[in-house]
Specification:
By secondary structure, this protein is α/β, with parallel strands linked by helices. The chain has two domains: 3-68, Chemotaxis Receptor Methyltransferase Cher, domain 1; 79-266, Rossmann fold (3-Layer(aba) Sandwich), CATH 3.40.50. It has eleven helices and ten strands. Strands 6-2-1-7-8-10-9 form a seven-stranded mixed beta sheet. It has a three-stranded antiparallel beta sheet with strand order 3-5-4. Bound molecules: S-adenosylmethionine (SAM).
Length: 269
């Protein structure tokens, strides 16, 4: 890809999704989009960019997001955060209301929201005191999440007992999430940079936004965090980021909370 096309393409992607490709990640972008060019019968990235910017280009945004996003995830990723959610945040929030709203804001193939359901079912039984919304920018991962079929990698942190309880084994290392878990999650396609984000999501008590802001630059991060704080989180609500992420460099009124080997950010009452 010539340098000018790379610059324009990354600017286009950044404006639409917040995802920012450093110059050193140009090879990644090229590799991921090459297949798409072939499918569209286009012979250069310049042509692809022109297509994206044309009136027909809006229909290409979905496949573009499918191609460029990194969807790594697994059940019970960073279990200390899940324990802090189940044992501290949820019981505290339930002192004020009978049911809470939880949002998995970049849910990928569904392991994260289903983990939250399973964690709550372990404590409260099948009738969990929470509604779970899960969203992502990529339709491809959302379809997989709704299907709910997983390989060994996704369930690597689960004991055989937990697998039996919450999955139907399909043989050949495939596991299907049971319907009573699946039914608890509503999946939607939501872009974290959508100006109508707050209206699409509504009010939340806990937001899991793990391992997605790492692909954004500070401007996009700040924008998303501000919307969470000002428009989506209820007072007393929590924001959980990836275990290695921090928003300490951003300008926010969130209060940092420490749990057993995990942190989260709380909107003061
Ligand atoms: C690495 S996965 C994280 C999955 C899960 N939260 C976890 O921590 O295991 C990052 C996800 O963020 C999604 N994503 C990237 N940009 C997004 C945006 N602007 N809005 C919503 N989701 C986005 C990607 O499609 C991808 O599925």
């Amino acid at each position: 890809m010539d340098p000018k096309t790379f610059e324009e393409l990354r600017e286009f992607i950044y404006k639409k999704s917040g995802i920012f490709f450093e110059k050193s990640k140009e090879y990644l972008l090229t590799n991921r989009l090459r297949k798409r060019l072939k499918e569209l019968n286009l012979s250069s990235f310049e042509e692809y960019l022109r297509y994206l910017k044309s009136p027909k280009g809006t229909q290409e945004l979905g496949p573009l997001f499918d191609a460029i996003t990194i969807n790594e995830t697994y059940f019970f990723r960073h279990i200390r955060q899940i324990e802090a959610f189940r044992d501290v945040m949820v019981p505290e929030l339930l002192k004020k209301k009978r049911s809470i709203n939880v949002w998995s804001a970049a849910c990928s193939t569904g392991e994260e929201p289903y983990t939250l359901v399973i964690a709550l079912m372990e404590k409260y039984g099948q009738n969990i005191p929470a509604r779970i919304l899960a969203s992502d920018i990529s339709n491809e991962v959302l379809e997989k999440a709704k299907e709910g079929i997983y390989g060994e990698y996704s369930v690597k942190e689960l004991s055989p007992d937990m697998k039996r309880k919450y999955f139907d084994s399909m043989g050949l290392g495939k596991y299907k999430i049971k319907d009573f878990v699946k039914r608890k999650v509503v999946f939607k396609n939501i872009n974290l940079l959508d100006p109508a984000l707050a209206r699409k999501v509504g009010k939340m008590d806990v937001i899991f936004c793990r391992n997605v802001l790492i692909y954004f630059d500070n401007n996009a991060r700040q924008k998303v965090i501000e919307t969470f704080y000002n428009d989506i989180l209820n007072p007393g609500g929590y924001l959980v980021l990836g275990a290695t992420e921090s928003i300490s460099r951003l300008n926010t009124k969130f209060k940092l909370c420490h749990f057993k080997m995990a942190i989260a950010y709380q909107k003061p009452e």
